[in-house]
Amino acid sequence: MRLRCCLLLIACGWIAGCEKNDLVWEPPPLACNPIQIFREEQVSSFTSDELSILSLSAGDECLTVSFRAARCEESNWELSLAASSLVLGTDPPERSIRFLLNNAEGCPTVEQGVAEFDVTSLRLAGESTVILNVVGTDLSVAYNF
Fold it and tell me: Which of 88, 121, 122, 140 is the most exposed place for a label (fewest CB within 10 A)?
């Protein structure tokens, strides 16, 4: 009997110590960088420092790009992704994307980098695939979701 009372007190203390939010599982935030969506003509007209895309791959939520560019210090090298709001009505549908490199210093050293971008905002209702075409290249990747 004494053991039951002790266990009951421990359980009550544990439940009283929990907040309502402690009992709800929340998925961790994405580790991928956000993207911005612009009109097609804006995406095509953006300027970028020079970079070479080595590979592209699309997962459930993120687009991974491996690239090469001149770089002096890590803090002086920023890669972002702009996507077009225009969706081509092909099967599967297509969207234009553009990688934008901001390199604060022009350096002779060329290094390789990898970046990931959250592409969940590029999903389309009623579709399971979108082709992402990289502006200014012949590269594209199928984003399946």
Answer: 121
